[in-house]
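Give me the fold.
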Amino acid sequence: MKKLIENWHPYFGSYDCLLNSISWWLSVQSIDVRPLVKCNWNLYVSGEHDQFGGSIPDDALCTLLPEVYSVSIQEITNFSEVPYEEVVILPIDAFHLPYLKESFQLHHQLHYVAAYFWTDGTVEIYDPYFLQSYYFREESCKEYWLRFQKPVLRLYSLGTNSAISPSPYLSRQPFERIYQETEVKLIEKIHTVLKEPDPLQISVKFQRYFGCFRSIYIARKKYFETLEHSSFEHISSLWLSVERSYMRLMVYRERGIDSVIDSIQKVIEAERTYLRQIDL
């Protein structure tokens, strides 16, 4: 499947696997991904998974996409109803993906990939972020899907590439309250890293949180790249500062936590200011 697009590069970070799979599908259909990038602004701490991020929630994405594009989404909850010889977006357990060294045979984690079900019982998957193809038997693929049982997504293009003028997802939510609550939760999560044994760089939690910060930085960087000009472009640099202060915990630990918290508070205040002027 990777040959469907030459010189493909992912738009989003490693923890935005559904967004990467959908943006890859849009590119296969020759549909402009930038409207999706312009919508992709959020900040959350997951209660279900030990992670956080800055992208549209998966369930909201399935509602938003048909509003932004002339695209229809069918959510398939019965694995036996997944169509053959057609690209779908498949939620799968990363525990079974050999190219994901951090989770393979180590940790169960939801991961989205593009998938093509052949009539001979073979399933070809393609990971648009890691640029990896892999083959499974259909019965094995069903077993790996059953861990989370999220809907398989079947997308249809309705024949036009035109999109409405998009706005950041969070700007249409009660973002003042969301930022306030998320800041508290995010700082609490960072404090839990200090309980990890030395050296921090081999801690799965530490690595996961780094990937979360990197995904937020990439999302903001891509967002501002879609704008001709903005006086708030420094927000992406502020997220990079958060990431760098977080990495210094490997050396300073307790002494470095205040720097991480300060950088988080600075970038959240900058984002609130930006969304306020959009809201006006």
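The chain has a mean pLDDT of 91.
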